[in-house]
């Protein structure tokens, strides 16, 4: 795509970016690519159409749920960019740095449907079931602090610890690192745990859940410079996001990452008409990522694998059994989310989730183009 540098400068100025950031955008990189593994170049940033801003507040945030009755906060067209300044931490912005566990509990227990301060919805004009929304992560800068916690009775080991756990973290000014403990430093890789289109149906859906519409994906690869693809479930798509994380491991085994909020978040949305996609997928500079959900890890892995086989065989014209073989030889299957709650405050329990990392390096340029066009047209 040819870049109009004068238009890019106007766009960069409107986004509040400096000259260095403008240069990065013009070269097809997000403003801060610190989180990309191995120094890989992020996915190209397309020139935005219009730029919209959504402030977090009582009219734009639904705590714990994806609400089908919520009116759209903004209406956008494909290619528009949405800025989310100063999003809220969990429990309607009720968590505060340094709060004792005992003081947090009354706040947490006010929200049995879920903790996440989900902001939205964004209506994508023209989106209909059978279409796909691409969510391009352009900017993800967290606030200056976060926490990790594990109430009793949650996580992969719900009965192993006699008392709840809570640890706070302060981030450096560049939002690159935090100290876990003396001698242990964590590199930050911010992302959104919840990305969703509104599910079909007339009742609110807990943000803790996940499915074809997205939801509580907690896919840590969704850092700046990546894309998430979500199958549209209802007219307008009605897009939500929440549950900001500063860093997380695969599996998120004690139930939480470094939970935080974003002081500067920018997501560009694209509409791809009439694309066949059953479950969420993602793209990074080095991989295609397929997700699968289930009541247990066996179900989640087989759902993920079947989605991979169906997608690649249709997109690349390969025999399904050849794709099955390729997955066994070249792909990595990872536990995205594992939980085994026995005493949760919340009325919903997250699905077990597995994701497949399919490396782009095994495909030539023509095959990569086929895979991309199967999602984008």
UniProtKB/TrEMBL annotation:
Q: Which residues does UniProt assign to the signal peptide?
A: 1-26
This protein's UniProt keywords: Signal
Which Pfam family is an annotated match for this chain, by its short name? FmdA_AmdA
Question: Which InterPro entries does the record cross-reference, listed alphabetically?
Answer: FmdA_AmdA, TAT_signal
* PROSITE patterns per the UniProt record, alphabetical: TAT
The record, for PANTHER family, names: FORMAMIDASE C869.04-RELATED
What protein name is recorded for this chain? Acetamidase
| Record organism | Cupriavidus malaysiensis
Q: What is the lineage of its organism?
A: Bacteria, Pseudomonadati, Pseudomonadota, Betaproteobacteria, Burkholderiales
């Amino acid at each position: 795509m040819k870049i109009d540098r004068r238009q890019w400068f106007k766009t960069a100025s409107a986004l509040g970016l400096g000259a260095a950031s403008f240069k990065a955008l013009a070269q097809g990189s997000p403003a801060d690519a610190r989180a990309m593994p191995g120094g890989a170049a992020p996915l190209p940033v397309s020139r935005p159409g219009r730029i919209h801003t959504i402030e977090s507040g009582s009219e734009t945030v639904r705590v714990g749920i994806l609400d089908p009755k919520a009116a759209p906060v903004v209406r956008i067209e494909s290619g528009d960019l949405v800025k989310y300044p100063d999003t809220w931490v969990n429990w309607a912005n009720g968590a505060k740095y340094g709060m004792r566990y005992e003081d947090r509990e009354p706040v947490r227990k006010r929200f049995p449907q879920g903790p996440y301060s989900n902001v939205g919805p964004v209506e994508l004009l023209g989106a209909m079931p059978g279409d796909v929304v691409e969510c391009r992560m352009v900017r993800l800068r967290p606030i200056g602090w976060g926490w990790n916690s594990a109430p009793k009775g949650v996580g992969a080991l719900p009965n192993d610890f006699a008392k709840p756990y809570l640890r706070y973290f302060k981030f450096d000014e560049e939002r690159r690192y935090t100290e876990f403990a003396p001698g242990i430093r964590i590199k930050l890789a911010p992302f959104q745990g919840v990305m969703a289109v509104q599910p079909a149906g007339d009742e609110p859906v807990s943000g803790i859940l996940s499915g074809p519409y997205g939801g509580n994906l907690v896919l840590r690869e969704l850092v700046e410079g990546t894309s998430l693809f979500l199958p549209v479930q209802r007219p307008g798509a009605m897009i939500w996001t929440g549950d900001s994380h500063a860093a997380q491991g695969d599996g998120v085994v004690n139930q939480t990452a470094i939970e935080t909020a974003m002081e500067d978040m920018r997501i560009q949305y694209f509409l791809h008409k009439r694309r066949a996609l059953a479950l969420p997928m993602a793209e990074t500079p080095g991989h295609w990522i397929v997700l699968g959900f289930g009541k247990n890890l066996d179900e989640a892995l087989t759902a993920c694998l079947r989605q991979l086989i169906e997608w690649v065989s249709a997109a690349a014209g390969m025999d399904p059994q050849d794709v099955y073989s390729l997955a066994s030889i070249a792909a990595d299957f990872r536990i995205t989310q594992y939980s085994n709650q026995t005493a949760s405050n919340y009325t919903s329990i997250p699905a077990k989730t597995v994701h497949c990392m399919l490396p782009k390096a095994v495909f030539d340029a023509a095959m990569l183009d086929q895979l991309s066009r199967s999602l984008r047209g």
